[in-house]
Write a structure and sequence with these properties.
Helix content: 25-40%
Order of helices and strands: EHHEEEHEH
Distance between the termini: 42 Å
Shape: globular
Strand order of the largest sheet: 1-2-3-4-5
Strand content: 15-25%
Number of strands: 5
Length: about 150
Amino acid sequence: MAEDVMIELARSADGETLASLNALIPQLSSSARPLEVGDLKKLIDDDNISLLLARDRNGEISGTLTLVTFSIPTGIRAIIEDVVVDGQKRGMSIGAKLVDFALDLALSLGAKTVDLTSRPDRESANRLYLRKGFQIRETNVYRFSF
């Protein structure tokens, strides 16, 4: 149940957080390499990154979301990245609670909008974003790979 989920900001690069993220991330991306403790520390120490963790009623990390905020000449921007909920715990509103927390945090940091992208095959995630009030934008997304 959603009421059994607590959302928090990651505060330390401890072994539990590292292991949990390394179990969750492959459920989102098959090409992502495992995080090392230095990678996690860099994320946590970055003022522009808020790494959110969802804990279930047993205190286990069952989901994560990364909120990136930054200033540009036209204002403060916010982007949600790397949203993943453990496959065995989906359907318990964990993703919704992560998104709600991220939206509240982005607003408190001065962002006027929050952007995200989601692959079309992530159907339940896309339904969640629409339910939360996100709107599909008509834009081109470009990527340059090194």
